[in-house]
Specification:
Elements: H1 2-16, H2 20-31, H3 34-59, H4 65-88, H5 91-96, H6 102-117, H7 121-132, H8 135-163, H9 166-189, H10 195-219
Helix pairs in contact: 1-7, 1-8, 2-3, 2-6, 2-8, 2-9, 3-6, 3-7, 3-8, 4-6, 4-9, 7-8, 9-10
Length: 236
């Protein structure tokens, strides 16, 4: 059992490195308290890996991959657009906005992680491990590995937030979410594409969106430029 736990931990931890779940953890760590994000990741990891281990043990790896891919892509798209909206908001709006409650932040993190992890490669990896090993050991090891990877992303987010502009990190994260959403759909429904082909096509979406946002911010009217008041006796 110990060997299976260690194997599951290693597989899930390595699979999560650089994955969209780590990006989500990093993005949430810029918005919410670190312990709220870590707690939400932990609860979501327990639930998702229990489902994966149960499915792998009792049903093999039979999952409705295409339907789950659509849900995953929609989740990533919503989180990406939400992140971009916050990144593009004015500094005054960010300062005046009330901080989110701990309960709401906790529920947001849990919901986003569960929807994003359903059908992810890490869930299929856990299901595959459970089909050949004890489901309990796979569940424990997979959960610990996923939480450890999320904790690493939170640490990186907190350290980066001290040295890099938060709005810049959020903007880049939002574009990356759009990339992952597009790639998820391409991998699920366009079978003729290679890995590099889907990656190249998926990159077009954040590039076009990023250029469009940049052009909009450059050419939009400056609303913050005050027009000096004319004296009442001024001659027009």
């Amino acid at each position: 059992m110990i060997a299976t736990i260690l194997l599951s931990f290693g597989v899930l931890f390595l699979a999560e490195l650089g994955d969209k779940s780590q990006l989500m953890a990093l993005t949430f760590s810029l918005r919410y308290r670190w312990w709220v994000v870590l707690a939400g990741i932990s609860v979501a990891s327990v639930a998702v890996n229990l489902i994966a281990a149960g499915v792998g043990h009792f049903l093999g790896t039979a999952l409705p991959a295409n339907a789950i891919a659509v849900v995953t892509a929609l989740t990533l798209l919503v989180v990406g657009l939400w992140t971009l909206r916050d990144a593009l908001g004015s500094a005054e709006e960010a300062e005046d906005a009330p901080p989110p409650s701990t309960r709401n932040a906790f529920l947001v993190v849990i919901s986003a992680f569960m929807l994003a992890e359903l059908g992810d490669r890490t869930m299929f990896a856990a299901a595959a491990l459970a089909s050949k090993n004890g489901w309990l050991a796979v569940w424990i090891g997979s959960t610990i590995g996923m939480v450890a990877a999320g904790g690493l992303a939170i640490l990186v987010g907190k350290l980066a937030g001290k040295h890099l502009p938060e709005r810049g990190i959020a903007f880049a994260s939002g574009l990356l979410f759009l990339f992952f959403a597009t790639k998820t759909v391409l991998d699920a429904f366009v079978s003729g594409l290679s890995g590099w082909g889907s990656t190249g096509l998926a990159l077009l979406v954040p590039v076009v969106v990023g250029l469009g946002i940049g052009a909009w911010r450059f050419y939009r009217p400056r609303r913050d430029v005050a027009v000096p008041d004319q004296p009442a006796n001024a001659v027009p």
